[in-house]
Every structure is written in structure tokens, then in C-alpha cells.
Amino acid sequence: MTSSPTLEYLTGFGNEHESEALPNTLPQGQFSPQKVNYGLYTEQFNSTAFTAPRAQNRRTWFYRMRPSCVQGQYQPWKQPCVRTAPITEVATPPDMLRWDPRELPTEPTDFIDGLTTIAANGDAMAQSGMGIHLYVANKSMTGRYFYCADGELLFIPQAGELLLRTECGQLSLKPGEIAVIPRGMKFAVDLQGDTARGYLAENYGAPLTLAERGPVGANGYANDRDFLYPTAAYEDMEGDFELLCKFGGNFFSASLGHSPLDVVAWTGNSAPYKYDLSRFNVMGSVSYDHPDPSIYTVLTSPSDIPGVANIDFVIFPPRWMVAEDTFRPPWYHRNVMSEFMGLIEGTYDAKEKGFVPGGCSLHNTMSPHGPEAAVFEKASNCELAPDRYENTMAFMLESRYVIQPTKWALETELRQRDYIKCWDGIKKNFKLPKAAD
């Protein structure tokens, strides 16, 4: 455990940021001068192809003590609980699935050791889809660093504050916030308390970006200004360190004689960022009917079909419900998109019991789902008045691809094998009108 530092941040989603930990580090008027101040090396970090359109292009220039190629040879390394799409170890059932939270570890476990894949979809090598992992930890990543070459990482903490030390600087992260680390960026995770638990989405596809607002206009939903980026903070340390990476679905380890977080200054638009979910400007119906959940989309990874996402990250935060003559919980539905849900805090309005913080559920493409019997009866018969949903934060990872649970997910004792029974109490209410005399 390390003490939580007081950090300063840069603001604005996808801005061309710049930051230097020492004055006069960043070159002026160019990126790659013949010599950089302080004897630093220039290195470009690209999250998109060089020729990607300017609006989608993401790259950052690092000015660092050593280029990244100064390291040992990679050797295979085992992380037996992580899987990568496509999942071929077990058939994907069409059943609705739900799981209890993972137990916190009793043996020393850092963030990497504590990862377990619950599901994945698409194909990492084809750069489509995602991996969905659960993490638990009770120790910091001491002397160990990591990067993922298969996808960018979306952190969704459920319990315990983290400190993310990255090549661009540091981000503090607590439940109720999210963070994204670009594909290939090196980092380490420190705990700010005794334990931590949460969810991790590994995005194999196009980098996450803000959802379009459409007819809503220029403001609302997730606002650009609320996304925070780190300021440069380098580690000048030599010794015996380990660099782990995930590449092509496999883990590898290389030795290092120094910390890889030795970036003294950087400039660009591919950098880690965080966002406080309480800043989300919720839109909703002020007349009738329950709107589509797409109005709660924070970030999206687009696919080649407009409006059909590789990943949508959606939240269900505290909000007012005021719609008149309306069944207010989510309606029963079957969806061509696949839906993985998690709960950060409180309860979810479609479920009365069983779906708890740290738990999760999976409703795959065309699998029917909706409120359980007790929720339906209550929402169908209650007196409608303005209702404030408090102390709640659920999220959904929605995707165009079938989400394949792992063998562990289907066999673990955490799986609620009686989940389907939550709909058993739904009864037939159909009545024909009485014939006229």
C-alpha cells in the first residue's frame, strides 16, 4: 500500500495535451530535434495507424531517459486465469447468466495476478471485440510493470482506491470513477488501501471515444471538459525490474535494469485518462415511456457499421424518473446486441435481489430479459410520482458480437445457477372482456 498523492491533471477529452516534469524539456516548434534537453531520447507512441484521418489519429511523443527497446528478451509467462477471444474452450449457451462477486484474496495478490477472464467476444488478432475481466488485489505491483498489446484497458473499480502509474504520469482512481489506458502503454497499479476489486474491459477494437449527442445538441451526456489526463511524473530508478506484457493472447516477461516509467515530458493525444461518473449529465423522458438505454452511453468503440458498436460503455446512475403513465423499469426485451452488466454500488431498478455490487450478468444476443416478477408487480401498480433513484451505479458493456463466457465462468461456484428462476413468478394476466348481455 502507498499513500495517496495529491495529483494535478490536464483537462479535455482527446486534446493535444503537453506536460513536462522538468522545465524546458519539450522541443519547441518540432517533435524530434537532433538533441533533446537533459540528454533524453525521443520516442513516438502510436495508438492508431500513421495514416488514420486526423480526427481519429492518436499519437504521443515521449521524451524519456531510455528508449523502450532497452530491455531483456521476452520469455513466456503464465497467467492461467486470463483468456483472449475467440473463446474456444467451451460452447457459448444462450442462457441468461449471473454471477456473485469474487472473494477478496488471502494470499499476496497484485493486480496482474488477480485478473480472471469471465467473458470475451470478437477476435483480438483481428482487432474486434473485447475481453471482460474481473480483478481482485491485496498488494501493489512492486518491481513489476505491464502493458497490453491486445487492446486498451477500461478500469471500472467497485471497491478500493487505486493509483495508476503510467508513462504519462499518475492517475488516482476510486469507485465511481473509470480510467482508460491506451493499448501498449506501460503502467503499474498500486493499492491505496488494503484490498481492491473491480472490472476490466480490454478493448480490441477502435479506441474508445465520446458518444455522439445527435439531436440533443452541443451539451449533455459526458462532457469533454470532465475527462482528466495525468501530468508528467518520471521514475528515475535502476535495479532489477520485470516487464510483463500481453501479446496475441499470451503473457510474456522481460527483465529490466530500470523503471520503464522514465518519461520526463510528453505531448500528444494518446494518453491515459479518467472520468468521474457522477459528472455524467443524464437525459431522460419528461413525458412518457422509458427511453432506450443508449442515452446513458459514456464511451463507445465504433465498428465499421455506424451506430452498431464494437463496445458501448453505458451507466445507470442516480437520476430522476418522472414519466407519466409509464412502466418505469427497463421493459422486457430481446436485443441483437449482447449485454454484460456489472454493479458498482447499491441496487439496479430491474432487479430486487441477487444482483449485488461486484457481481455481474450476461444477456447475450436475442436472450430475453427484463424485470423479475416482484419488480413488475410493484412498477405496474405503484402510484406514479417523481422518484429519485439514489445510491446506485450500474454499468453495461454492450457489443455487436456474441459475448462468450469462459469455462471458468460457466463452472465457478459464483455462477447463480438458479438465476432463470427470478422470472418464475411472472403470471398470465390476460383477460378477455366480458360479453355484453
Description:
- The structure is a single chain.
- The chain has 437 residues and is mostly beta strands.
- The chain has two domains: 9-26 and 34-44 and 55-277, Jelly Rolls (Sandwich); 282-416, Sandwich (Jelly Rolls).
- Helices cover 3% and strands 36% of the residues.
- The strands form six sheets. The chain has a nine-stranded antiparallel beta sheet with strand order 1-17-21-13-10-15-8-7-29.
- β7 and β8 form a beta hairpin.
- The protein is globular.
- The mean pLDDT is 95.
Text of the CATH class of the largest domain: Mainly Beta
Report the sheet with the most strands, covering strand number, pairing sense and barrel closure: 9 strands, antiparallel
Question: What gross morphology would you assign?
Answer: globular
**SS-derived structural category:** mainly beta
Features:
437 residues; mainly beta; Jelly Rolls; 2 domains; nine-stranded antiparallel β-sheet; seven-stranded antiparallel β-sheet; 2 helices; 29 strands; 3% helix
Which helices and strands occur, and which strands form pairs?
Elements: E1 9-11, E2 17-20, E3 41-46, E4 59-64, E5 75-77, E6 97-99, E7 115-123, E8 128-137, E9 144-148, E10 152-159, E11 162-166, E12 169-173, E13 177-181, E14 187-191, E15 196-203, E16 209-210, E17 227-230, E18 238-247, E19 250-258, E20 263-268, E21 273-276, E22 297-301, E23 311-316, E24 319-321, E25 338-345, E26 360-363, H1 373-381, E27 387-389, E28 393-399, E29 404-405, H2 407-411
